[in-house]
Amino acid sequence: MLEIRNLTTEPEATEGVDPRTIEFGRDNSPNFFVMDYSDGQWRNARIEPVQPFVLHPAANVLHYAQTIFEGLKAYRQPSGSIALFRPNLNAARFHRSARRMSIPAVEEGAFLDAVSALVTNERNLVPPEPGCLYVRPSIIGVEPSVGLKSSNAFTFFILTYPSGPYFGHAGEGAGSIDVLVSTSVTRACQGGMGNVKAGANYAGTLAILERAKELGCAQVLFLDAVGHRGVEEMGGMNLIFLQNGALRTPPLSETILDGVTRDSVLAIAEDFGLGVEEEFISIDELVAGLRDGSVTEAIACGTAAVTTGIKTFRFEDGSVVPVGTVCPGPVTSQLYERLVGIQYGLLPDPHGWVHPVV
Ligand code: COI
Q1: 13: domain range?
Q2: How far apart are alpha carbons 195 and 101 in whole angstroms?
Q3: Regions of the chain with pLDDT less than 70
Q4: Are residues 181 and 147 in the same domain?
Q5: Largest Cα span, the chain
Q6: Cα 266 → chain centroid
Q7: Ligand 1 center from residue 17 Cα (angstroms)
Q8: Same domain assignment for residues 153 and 187
């Protein structure tokens, strides 16, 4: 059990805030978890009021982006208790990300202890459905040196955010968005770190994401770095679509993040008796399927996004290909209802995904 000093008082509940009106990621809760790494070990775990870090301008993270993060959510249950959703998968992925980025790993048990202790402390700020407390663990390299080497000092911290739906404009339920297909920018290559939750992966997608937003698209679909044809993921979320009644998605690889929501949606689809196919899908095949009507739904799925219907794919040449006739489609909505029903403790949890913390 990780020993954690608590230097805070529990925040009071804020009444009457509609989670739908909260801008995602803007306002953190008042307290955070912090732990330092020096002289070869993690030490001094504590929960304290959020305050700015004092970083030397040469801190490794500021120059070489030696940083990783995670994203998971805590949900208010009908009894008023609070539960995390599959946090063991985040703990394991954080561990894998640390190894790839030459960051000293936090033991999975310590990660879970830290997340649970902070969520317990901030429990009064977990909004009711459709809100939740978004949890953002992160590690940064803080050694002040511009020599290109792994930092010898790190800070592990966890922030939490009372949140509503990620795509505020996407509508009620699963919601719907438009997506830009990028043929000019790739996100990840074999041997790279596309399957790692490293800040730099996300920074590399921001320019094209801003361009997408100018075109009215909320996300960018990236293709593979070799042939520029294989459908991969959308930077902040995975892509699944429904073709001839089965869910199809590209298989996990070094270039695709192993999404917790992706995994959960595929498991729920199997519970529904839907076929699930994880295989290479080219953009030409996707467009052909959309045009001949065999692809009827496309789903963006991620912790922040949950499952969101994709209404259209826009290409950089200006052409737009619609997805099906209704968005979100019926299967997207059924998957969404089952997933959030489990997360909020409103439906049975046959897979044992819900992890009560307090
Ligand atoms: C998450 O879904 O938790 C992520 O980290 C994606 C980010 C775009 C918010």
Answers
A1: 5-163
A2: 12
A3: 169-171
A4: no
A5: 61
A6: 16
A7: 23
A8: no
What number does the ligand 1 atom closest to the CA of 304 have? 2
Residue 161 CA to residue 167 CA, distance in Å, equals: 15
Q: Is the CB of 236 under 6 A from ligand 1?
A: yes
For position 129, which CATH number holds?
A: 3.30.470.10
CB-based burial of residue 355 (10 Å sphere; 0-12 exposed, 13-18 middle, 19+ buried)?
middle
CA of 308 relative to ligand 1 center, distance in Å: 13
Residues 111, 188: one domain?
Answer: no
What spacing in Å lies between the alpha carbon of 292 and ligand 1's midpoint? 33
CB 182 within 8 A of CB 220: yes
Element of type H or E holding 248: strand 246-249
Tell me how crowded residue 82 is: count the other CB atoms within 10 A of its CB.
21
How many domains, in total, are found in the chain?
2
Q: Residue 214 corresponds to which tokens in the numbers above?
A: 């100018």
pLDDT tens sequence across 201-221: 999 999 999 999 999 999 999
Amino acid type, 339? L
Q: What is the pLDDT of residue 171?
A: 64
Question: Residue 277 corresponds to which tokens in the numbers above?
Answer: 């196919």
Assess whether 159 and 210 both reside in one domain. Answer: no
CB of 132 within 6 A of ligand 1: the answer is: no
Does residue 296 sit within a domain?
yes
- Are residues 286 and 337 located together in one domain of the fold? yes
Strands 295-302 and 238-243: antiparallel
* Closest protein CA for atom 7 of ligand 1: 236
